[in-house]
Amino acid sequence: MYESTRGNLSGQRAAQAITLGMVPSGGLFVPSTIPTLNWQDLKGLPYRDVAKRVMTPYLPDFSESDLSKIVDVYSDGTFDGPNPAPLVSVGNFGVLELWHGPTAAFKDMALQVLPDLLKVSLKLFDREEDVLILVATSGDTGKAALEGFKNREGMHIVVFYPEGGVSPVQERQMTTTEGINTHVVAVKGNFDQCQTAVKRIFASETLKSQLLEKKLIFSSANSINWGRLLPQIVYYFWAYLQAVEQGKVAPGATMNVVVPTGNFGNIQAAYYAERMGLPIGQIICASNKNNVLTDFFATGVHQSQRDFFQTISPSMDILVSSNFERFLYEMSGRNAEQIQTWYDAKNQGTFTVDPLTLKQCQDTVYAGWADEEETLATISQSYKAYQYVFDPHTAVAMKVYNDYLAATNDQTYTVIASTASPFKFASNVLIGLEGEQDKSWKDEWEALDYLSQLTGWKIPMGLQGLDQKPEKAVKVSEPEGIAELLQKMFI
Ligand SMILES: *Cc1c(COP(=O)(O)O)cnc(C)c1O
Q: Within a 10 A sphere around the Cβ of 89, how many other Cβ atoms?
């Protein structure tokens, strides 16, 4: 069963949590108990079967055959090889490449299964309505969600992104999505304003009832939806199985993970994997210049009313990380009343936790951050040292891992979650590798080719020929105008 982090709902089935996306009166769905799983029982299984075993205890009302079909996506050619998430040995650490899906970012790992999870959830509830998926994106979620949901029967998707706040490749990926049920809206504002506006829509009773008359219900494909988080727990088990198989980790010994963090979904999945019994040593949270979380772990003060920076790791440009609420729920000993106060709308994400909760947080996660220069320097240093190219997000993680090593000298085998292909951010990667002085590429599209020539790496399929594809019309809206726009589109 699932309950709300704010104590306003409990005893809900998985299908309900996934259908609703978030608790209608505020709060996020979390599992009431966290099941355990012995990693040894997963040895030798292919990814799809590991996925099935990890997800099954969380989805008791899903049939076995439904789940088998859902995990097919990991073996049916959707991902660009037999291993959807290879652990690559780099130096004396590992890089878990989570970007072999259709959009070259780790979001595919979950967004390729969420539509099926949702479809089964609706069936379990005998819901006849169509679903309207609303997504706020800082870049990568948008395209991954559009790809996952395109041409799905009974589902419509609208993606909202901050105008000018995503990379040219990210924008083109979104605007070239096919599918009659896919829509893209550029919002005048930064990602936080965009996300806040979309959250307000979810809470609007007026819009909800108007849509219901048209037989439409809302759901979310952001990582506030449990159906997004659940498939992400899988690849931490997968990383561990590979590390043991490669002889990097002795069976049963611990493994550290470093996660470049934005909305705190990916790292929260690592935390759940640890709670399920996976031998994870240290979980390391890496932030960019928008380092609300680094400050929080140092002081216990969550100060999100501060300047927002647009960085070269845009998917981490976030001041209020949605899933952090799930983390604090666990760290506070599931104190829903506290969560309610901390996340009260009038606090706008600025609050201070009690010393005990802070201690619990610090014992669970190590946090650090990288500024823009450090990120670029890490891209070039890592390439020189290991001939391995990090995208800017993963480079932030690499930098924080170096800081962690310097601070602790912890020799535990460590896996860096690599969240995007470097080609997704080719020009910034090239600036890291070559400096900005004499750019030998004229635009983002040349940068892709040039990066490929320079490194000998292949451009991922999903990023090839993007500049030639036809684009769909993008609607533009103020954050306050989103409700009206949706009314025009669907009511
Ligand atoms: C979404 C994203 C992140 C942040 O992940 P969260 O789960 O939101 O913390 C990091 N890197 C890339 C490339 C992403 O797309």
A: 14
Please give the distance, rounded to the nearest whole angstrom, from the Cα atom of residue 178 to the centre of ligand 1: 24
The model's pTM is 0.95
Q: Choose one of 96, 106, 418 to mutate for the ligand 1 pocket test, by most ligand atoms within 8 angstroms of C-beta.
A: 106
Per DSSP, the three-state class of 30 is strand
Residue 326 in contact with ligand 1 by CB distance below 6 A:
no
Q: Which residues pair with 284 in a beta bridge?
A: 258, 366
> 382: Cβ below 6 Å to ligand 1?
no
Ligand 1 pocket residue status of 424, Cβ below 6 Å? no
What are the pLDDT tens digits along the chain (491 aa)? 999 999 999 999 999 999 988 898 889 999 999 999 999 999 999 999 999 999 999 999 999 999 999 999 999 999 998 999 999 999 999 999 999 999 999 999 999 999 999 999 999 988 889 999 999 998 789 999 999 999 999 999 999 999 988 888 899 999 999 999 999 999 999 888 998 899 889 888 999 999 999 999 988 898 889 999 999 999 999 999 999 999 999 999 999 999 999 999 999 999 999 999 999 999 999 999 999 999 999 999 999 999 999 999 999 999 999 999 999 999 999 999 999 999 987 778 899 999 999 999 999 999 999 999 999 999 999 999 999 999 999 999 999 999 999 999 999 999 999 999 999 999 999 999 998 877 888 888 999 999 999 999 999 999 998 989 999 989 999 999 999 999 999 98
Residue 32 is inside which H or E element, if any?
none
Q: Whose CA is nearest to atom 15 of ligand 1?
A: 140
Q: Which CATH class is domain 87-104+228-462?
A: alpha beta
Residue 140 CA, ligand 1 centroid: distance in Å: 8
Q: Is the beta carbon of 111 within 6 A of some atom in ligand 1?
A: no
* Ligand 1 centroid from CA 315, angstroms: 5
**Residue 228 CB less than 6 A away from ligand 1:** no
Contact of 436 with 427, CB cutoff 8 Å: no
- CB under 8 A, 24+ apart: contacts of 401-408: 401/93, 401/258, 401/284, 401/286, 402/378, 403/368, 404/258, 404/282, 404/284, 404/366, 404/368, 408/366
> Whole-angstrom Cα distance, residue 491 to residue 488?
6
Q: In whole angstroms, what is the distance from residue 237 CA to residue 335 CA?
A: 28
The domain locations on the chain are 87-104+228-462
